[in-house]
C-alpha cells in the first residue's frame, strides 16, 4: 500500500493540471460573483453559469492593464488557464484577459491579436515611410465590384494623369477574402509600383473582418513600398490601418493622398525652374569672373610680353655694348698712338736718319765695342738708305 500525504497529493495534482498544458489558453463565458479586490491589488472572484462555478484570480499586474474591472452580476468573456492552489487543494482559473460578454469572442480574439502585433512593434510609428512625391506607378488592391474603385480612378486621372495605375483585384468580404487580399498584395508587389492603395468601401464592422486577419496585416506590414489604406468609413478602424504607412478615412481620400494635384505640381515645377534659373545665372556669373581673372593673368604672362621684354633687354644690352666697345676702341687707339710714338722715338730708323750707322759682323752680331772686331774683318754698315760692306783697317780703343 502506497500512502501519500495531503501535500504529496496536492503537489501531484498541480503538476498534472499545470504541467501537461491541457488547460492553458482557455476562453470561458461566465457570470462574475463575489468579486473583491484586495489591498495587494489582486482580484478574487467566482465565475459561474447555471450548472457550475470555479474560483478565479486576476493578478495585480493584469488588473492594472484592464480599463474597467467587472462587478458582481456582469456577464464576461475571460481568457486564461487552470491553476491549482496547493495549500487548500482548490482549483482556480487564472485570468489574463477579461471583456464584457456583449463584445463577443471575435472582438476578444481581435484584442489579443492587436496586443501581440503591437508587442512585435508592427504598429511603431518609426516603421512608417513617407509617400513618394511623384509616383510613376500606383497599385490598387480592391474589388472590381467596389463602388469606390471608379471614384479612385477618377480622382487619380483628374489629379495626377502622369501616373500609371495597376489594378490587382481581390475579394474584400467573406471567408475567402483574407487569402484573396494576400495574393493580390503579393502580386502587385512584383509589379515595380512606387505606391499601393488597399481599399474597401463602407460596411458593417463584421464586413471588414478580412482587414483584421493576421496574414493580411502581416502582408501589409511587409510591403516593399509605402502603402495607404482606405477601408470603410471614417469611423472604421482596422488592424491594417495600424500597420500601413498612412491611413485614409475613405478610399477616395486614399486616392487624393496618393496623387499630388497638378496645380501643386505646376507650383513645384515653377519653383524648381526659378531655383534652376538663379543657380545657372549665379554659375555663369562666377564663370565670367573666373574667365576675366584668367584672361588678365594670361595678359600679364602672355609670351608676346615675355618676348617684348627680352627684346628690350637685348636692345638695351646692345646699346650698352656698342657704347662700351666705342669707349674701349678709343682707349685702344689712344694707347696705340702712344706706343707708336714711343716706337718711333726708339726706332733705329730714327737714329739712322740722323746720320748714324749700325755695324754688324758676318754672323749678324751688332758691333758695340771696338774690341769685337779685328783689322781686315769685313763688316756690314746699315745706314738710313741701305747697307755698306766695309773692311776694318784698324781699331781705336
UniProtKB/TrEMBL annotation:
<dbReference type="GO" id="GO:0006308">
    <property type="term" value="P:DNA catabolic process"/>
</dbReference>
<dbReference type="GO" id="GO:0008855">
    <property type="term" value="F:exodeoxyribonuclease VII activity"/>
</dbReference>
<dbReference type="GO" id="GO:0005737">
    <property type="term" value="C:cytoplasm"/>
</dbReference>
<comment type="function">
    <text>Bidirectionally degrades single-stranded DNA into large acid-insoluble oligonucleotides, which are then degraded further into small acid-soluble oligonucleotides.</text>
</comment>
<keyword id="KW-0963">Cytoplasm</keyword>
<keyword id="KW-0540">Nuclease</keyword>
<dbReference type="Pfam" id="PF02601">
    <property type="entry name" value="Exonuc_VII_L"/>
</dbReference>
<keyword id="KW-0269">Exonuclease</keyword>
<dbReference type="InterPro" id="IPR020579">
    <property type="entry name" value="Exonuc_VII_lsu_C"/>
</dbReference>
<feature type="domain" description="Exonuclease VII large subunit C-terminal">
    <location>
        <begin position="122"/>
        <end position="344"/>
    </location>
</feature>
<comment type="subunit">
    <text>Heterooligomer composed of large and small subunits.</text>
</comment>
<comment type="similarity">
    <text>Belongs to the XseA family.</text>
</comment>
<dbReference type="InterPro" id="IPR025824">
    <property type="entry name" value="OB-fold_nuc-bd_dom"/>
</dbReference>
<keyword id="KW-0378">Hydrolase</keyword>
<dbReference type="GO" id="GO:0009318">
    <property type="term" value="C:exodeoxyribonuclease VII complex"/>
</dbReference>
<dbReference type="InterPro" id="IPR003753">
    <property type="entry name" value="Exonuc_VII_L"/>
</dbReference>
<feature type="domain" description="OB-fold nucleic acid binding">
    <location>
        <begin position="4"/>
        <end position="98"/>
    </location>
</feature>
<protein>
    <recommendedName>
        <fullName>Exodeoxyribonuclease 7 large subunit</fullName>
        <ecNumber>3.1.11.6</ecNumber>
    </recommendedName>
</protein>
<dbReference type="Pfam" id="PF13742">
    <property type="entry name" value="tRNA_anti_2"/>
</dbReference>
<dbReference type="GO" id="GO:0003676">
    <property type="term" value="F:nucleic acid binding"/>
</dbReference>
Amino acid at each position: 500500500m502506497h500512502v501519500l500525504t495531503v501535500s504529496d497529493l496536492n503537489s501531484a495534482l498541480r503538476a498534472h493540471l499545470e504541467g501537461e498544458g491541457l488547460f492553458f489558453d482557455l476562453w470561458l463565458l461566465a457570470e462574475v460573483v463575489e468579486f473583491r479586490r484586495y489591498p495587494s491589488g489582486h482580484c478574487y472572484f467566482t465565475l459561474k453559469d447555471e450548472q457550475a462555478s470555479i474560483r478565479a484570480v486576476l493578478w495585480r499586474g493584469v488588473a492594472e492593464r484592464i480599463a474597467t474591472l467587472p462587478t458582481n452580476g456582469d456577464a464576461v468573456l475571460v481568457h486564461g488557464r487552470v491553476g491549482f492552489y496547493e495549500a487548500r487543494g482548490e482549483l482556480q482559473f487564472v485570468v489574463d484577459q477579461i471583456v464584457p460578454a456583449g463584445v463577443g469572442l471575435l472582438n476578444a480574439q481581435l484584442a489579443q491579436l492587436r496586443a501581440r502585433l503591437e508587442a512585435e512593434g508592427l504598429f511603431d510609428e518609426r516603421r512608417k515611410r513617407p509617400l513618394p512625391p511623384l509616383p510613376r506607378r500606383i497599385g490598387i488592391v480592391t474589388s472590381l465590384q467596389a463602388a469606390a474603385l471608379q471614384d479612385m480612378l477618377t480622382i487619380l486621372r483628374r489629379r495626377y494623369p502622369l501616373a500609371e495605375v495597376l489594378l490587382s483585384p481581390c475579394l474584400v468580404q467573406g471567408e475567402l477574402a483574407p487569402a484573396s487580399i494576400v495574393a493580390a498584395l503579393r502580386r502587385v508587389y512584383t509589379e515595380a509600383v512606387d505606391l499601393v492603395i488597399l481599399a474597401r468601401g463602407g460596411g458593417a464592422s463584421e464586413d471588414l473582418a478580412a482587414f483584421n486577419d493576421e496574414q493580411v496585416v502581416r502582408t501589409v506590414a511587409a510591403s516593399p513600398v509605402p502603402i495607404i489604406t482606405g477601408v470603410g468609413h471614417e469611423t472604421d478602424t482596422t488592424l491594417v490601418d495600424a500597420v500601413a504607412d498612412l491611413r485614409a478615412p475613405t478610399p477616395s481620400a486614399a486616392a487624393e493622398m496618393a496623387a499630388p494635384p497638378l496645380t501643386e505640381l505646376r507650383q513645384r515645377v515653377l519653383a524648381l525652374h526659378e531655383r534652376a534659373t538663379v543657380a545657372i545665372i549665379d554659375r555663369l556669373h562666377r564663370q565670367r569672373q573666373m574667365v576675366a581673372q584668367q584672361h588678365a593673368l594670361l595678359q600679364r604672362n602672355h609670351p608676346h610680353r615675355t618676348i617684348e621684354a627680352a627684346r628690350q633687354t637685348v636692345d638695351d644690352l646692345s646699346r650698352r655694348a656698342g657704347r662700351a666697345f666705342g669707349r674701349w676702341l678709343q682707349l685702344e687707339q689712344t694707347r696705340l698712338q702712344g706706343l707708336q710714338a714711343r716706337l718711333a722715338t726708339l726706332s733705329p730708323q730714327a737714329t739712322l736718319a740722323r746720320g748714324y750707322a749700325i755695324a754688324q759682323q758676318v754672323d749678324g752680331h751688332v758691333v758695340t765695342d771696338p774690341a769685337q772686331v779685328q783689322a781686315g774683318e769685313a763688316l756690314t754698315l746699315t745706314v738710313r738708305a741701305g747697307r755698306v760692306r766695309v773692311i776694318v783697317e784698324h781699331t781705336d780703343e
